[in-house]
Amino acid sequence: MSGLKFRRKHIVHTFECDVKKEMTLPALINIMVETSGLQSRHLGNTNEQMSERGLSWIIIQYDMQITQMPKSRETITIETEAISYNRFFTYRKFRAFDEADNILVEVLTTFAMMDIKTRKLTQIQEELVAPYQAEKIRTMIRAPKIQAVNLETASELPFRVRYLDIDGNNHVNNAKYFDWMINSIDLEILKNYTVGSVNIKYEKEVNFGNIINSFVSVEEVEKDKVMTVHHIENDHAIACRANITWVKRN
Amino acid sequence: MSGLKFRRKHIVHTFECDVKKEMTLPALINIMVETSGLQSRHLGNTNEQMSERGLSWIIIQYDMQITQMPKSRETITIETEAISYNRFFTYRKFRAFDEADNILVEVLTTFAMMDIKTRKLTQIQEELVAPYQAEKIRTMIRAPKIQAVNLETASELPFRVRYLDIDGNNHVNNAKYFDWMINSIDLEILKNYTVGSVNIKYEKEVNFGNIINSFVSVEEVEKDKVMTVHHIENDHAIACRANITWVKRN
């Protein structure tokens, strides 16, 4: 299973980094998704052409493995590769490499096509995915199951969906959900642990002005490894779920 | 008055843009300040060397004139120029140009040096500014006076300072204040007007976990032009003041 690859270099900006001078998850996701947008433009398949057909790509799930988060001012290579597609989903990998071509991050992403008017999923249109040379498959690629928040031990923090959270597609940028999740985690974990993996699934859209609640519970996985278990609740429905594993820093 | 100039190209990312597909103020400020950091590195004058001396650059004020905000996927040139300095302040211009070299944005910035331990301003150390070849002056460059919020008509919105708001210098990135201000403005203004100028002055630091209040009142300037008048209050003290003028879109 593999399709066209597309690569670009990126120098990690200081403002893309956290207090540890490591790239933040939202910044990493933004630059990766931008890279697939650049590949689409390169193949003559712009978002504008999708819009003209009344369609929009939406992101369903990320499954991320992080060996080492890129560091401030590091030159990284971002690679994207259209892997495969079935009737309803397309699968794409993103990778980040350091200057010696060691892999830092690998992400498997599930995309779907949405009908802009009905806001519902629609079947993949073959002529729109043809340029990426991905393999047509009959099966679904299943990401790891996402464990549910333990509501008995969970903490909860409200966030207001802000004007600047809304992007040019008129919806909340998918990287903002990482903000709401990370910013609800206990400071001791954020300071003493580093991200090892993320599995996030988007279930319902949230809109400008909504007050969402970010729930998080914590589980010990093994010695020096914990998992933060998240969901985003909006108007009593779950909009997004995620599991993040964290490895203790030396 | 002029010193060394430094230029770099930047392609505006879609995630740096708002619902109008125009670059946001925080994104523009981030990329500009990063450019002066690159010039410093280029001149062998890194933030790390400043830290070793127990010093840090801090931003006191921005005075911005915006002819046209850069647009999504536009290639712009960011220019920075060390203008001049006196005993306590250094002055630097930032400019953004379009591909035909028309000026889009011009910013005059006032920097100061802070002693990291005492968190107080310290005199400019001449050997640290010498590489920029800026002119030494005896006077202060005064930015336009910032008008005060009309508390009788102001609205007020709280924001929690989040973990991801803190940068590698261990304080709130100065662009975050723009988030708090813009996100407190009435949606009708944000939708129907475009930014013409900004004058912002930083007065006190805010810290992780603080709940700040973003105050805004609105004044008619002339036909099709309004000014939003802002301050950020933290623990009953004003941390930051700003005036933003907005011009009605056609």
UniProtKB/TrEMBL annotation, chains A, B:
Keywords: Fatty acid biosynthesis, Fatty acid metabolism, Hydrolase, Lipid biosynthesis, Lipid metabolism, Transit peptide. One of its GO terms (molecular function) is acyl carrier activity. It comes from the Bacteria. Transmembrane segments: none annotated. Pfam families: Acyl-ACP_TE, Acyl-ACP_TE_C. InterPro entries: Acyl-ACP_TE_C (IPR049427), Acyl-ACP_thioesterase_NHD (IPR002864), FATA/B (IPR045023), HotDog_dom_sf (IPR029069). Residues 3-132 form the Acyl-ACP thioesterase N-terminal hotdog domain. Belongs to the acyl-ACP thioesterase family. This is Acyl-ACP thioesterase. The lineage of its organism: Bacteria, Bacillati, Bacillota, Bacilli, Lactobacillales.
